[in-house]
Amino acid sequence: MAVNHLIQEAVQCPLESPRFAFIAPYLKESKDIAWDYLKKYAGVIPENDPHEGELRMNLPGDRRIRLYGADNPESIQGIYLDGVVMDEYQFTHPRVFKQIVRPMLADRKGWVLFLGKPLGHNHFYELYETLKGEARFLTRLYRASETNVLDAEELALMRQDMGEDLYAQEVECSWEAAIQGAYYARQLDQCRADKRIRSVPWEPTGPSVETYWDLGFEDATAILFVQRMGRELHVIDYHEARKYDLSVYAKVIREKPYLYAKHNLPHDAGQHQLASGGVSLAEQLQALGVRPVAVHAANEPLAGINQARLLFPRLWFDETRCGLLLEALASYRAEYDEKKKDFKDHPLHDWASHGADALRLLACNVKFGEDVQRPRDWKPKPSRVDFNPFTVLDAPKGHR
Domains, the chain, ranges and CATH? Predict the structure, then answer.
């Protein structure tokens, strides 16, 4: 339906040189889902011109439909769009539409079609709930028990084979079903039940704020801003971005109103970078004024996830400033093995990983004294840095 809608709109668009796009979470996924359909249904149009290498269909009159992956949003930048299909939107980082695709639709007054399935109360759920009450949007939810596309016998077999939660999510479009393989689903539900996801303001007269980082460049850099209030940990702010150098994040730190106690970095921040003359990321941040910093030893992901689960009863989240973090934590899940039909023993690395990794750094290194116990299987890996990974660093020589 979506591919045919793109073709129809491309053929009928009255504007000069129309451009349309189909975007799935990954380029390979976009090709698997839509490319064969696009070639088949556009193939009846005279003078159609498919370009397999670019996943682009040219139609007469300089009309074009192209497939993209949301995993490489920079490949979409610099163009205009008259219409776009965002498929499997529940798996796509919400910034791809908000920051990249939406501005491309503005000058041509283009349209967007979001397709997907429930994955808990994430950004797709919020979008659906927001738009379903507005007259200028069309929203539809198709449950298999109501469409009659599949007969009752097949549905009964699917329920038996898939289990109640997965069947409810995948077949009956339940927003409430537990996300399969999600690490923090129950913990987030308890946070909501306890009303620990709410407005959590910074307390200027309270303890100084600590930050916890997950560093990346092609992948996102994620920063948690945490204020410790007695036994409670208030996650008051969150920042995430990608493909920026450290000076941008140092500026973000400086421009926040908070007073800082310490900036906590993962183990790889202590490794010397050949590209920067042997200066580590931690030393570079200090030279930019982000200090004091502490570089922490690595931890096993599953043990760290378990530690984060134990820490959740003490966590409070600001629902506005930490909205993206909460979506990431809700979507953070184990990778699924299609061959074995079971979940692997490690997390899926996608857009949700970065905020979750920053939280894991917090969970493995926060200290309350004797009242917090590490899980029995928690064993930090030795850091490969040439200084004590828990030492607060001074500024590197030559920098004031």
Answer: 2-116 (3.40.50.300), 136-180 (no CATH), 197-365 (3.30.420.280)
